[in-house]
Amino acid sequence: MNTPGLPRLVAGLRSPSGLTLNEHAECHGALADAPRRGEALIAAIAAAGLRGRGGAAFPTAVKLRAVAAGRGRRALVVNGAEGEPMSSKDRLLLELAPHLVLDGALLAAEAVGARDLVVTVKRSARSAHAAVSHALTERRDTRGVRLQTSADGYISGEETALLHQLNGGPATPTLAPPRPHERGLGRRPTLISNVETLAHLALIARHGPAWFRQLGTADHPGSALITLAGAVQRPGVHEIALGMPVAQAIAGSRGAPVRAVLVGGYYGIWLTPEAVASARLDDASMRTLGAGLGAGVVVALPADACPAAEVARVVRWMADENAGQCGPCVHGLDAVADALERLVAGTAGTDVVARLQRWSGQVQGRGACHHPDGVVGFLRSALTVFAPEFEAHRRHGPCHACHRHPILRVPTVRERLAA
Amino acid sequence: MSRRLTVDPIDCTGHGACAELLPERVQLDDWGYPMLADEPIPEELLAHARRAVAACPTLALRLELERRAS
Asked: What's the pTM value of the predicted model, to 2 decimals?
């Protein structure tokens, strides 16, 4: 995947340890020399068309302006919760390019007038936490910055859930409005932004919007980090130009035929090989197919895996990841996951797919956050793309591939306890 | 100025009083939680809607002035 103009975010990176402050300044230039600051930076971000990289692809400049217009003392939260099990891009950035993320956080804080600045890293990402902690000791401009761990769990990184937690509550979403820019950390107007988004912001402050737009599409400009998994030649985190064909991203898949491709993680959708031929990795293109790019997870499911078992396992885990708050999500997703498990075991009634569709419709849009919507979006696309496999399981029960090593990872109980 | 029913899904615990008192606008899902019709409450239903709001044991049901689409 050699693209002219790349790498940007991952320039100069090498495992296992991150860039020191000097190496970072050599690679990207010193923060003090970044020409776009304050209001001019917000204008540059708007011109660059930067969209958030946490999953929602919301225009970053709109958020910046909303917080800058807030009253009183303002706050900034760097969201490194990365709850998507198959995504590891935020952890990678925090580990290997902590200074780029901190540059972005400081620039954004300055632009919106935030004096309280918290960097959150999920509990299980210990080396990311250590890298940021070390990076903070290297700098003199981060005295007010706090580093905090956040709960692991799929929805812990949902912005109201993260703020709820930072404010001393559980890691559960709250009803919006009030939105974070109105009332966030310590009830202050708060900018809450994904790790990768802030790293892009730090580069736009240095190189400007025209440079940023040299890659990507008009609607979704720039580069992005994606996490590739499954039947691909080089699994792991890659920096791509947005708008890259999905086929190109998964090209050279070790000769293994691909049954379907999941784009957007566990709120994402499945693409058939035919859809893969024309689909592109940017939010607008993906939305025409049913769901956005999410946090950039792309999984090529090999033809010898069992899609029915994979999907049922993910839906069960996602159902269990509910916050325990909204009835339709708590009971609805549990019922859906149950029915799906029975379907795969071959013990469900003939009307099980109709029931799944009915329940999906009832759950859609009924939560305080978008967890139920994301899960049923994933399920519905699976029911369409893998209709023959689901029907075979309903009739005949588990197949020989049901118990193969999972392609779609869900954290095990042991991993959760260790974290 | 039209009014619309909303439910706070976090506060709602599915008592179902709203569906009893305002079946014209509230249906229960398969687990007993209210699904609200996505339309304003007409004048003739307003008294019933207010009664449903007042009867909600968890104060999850609200009658709000219609906000302009933002």
From this structure: 0.95
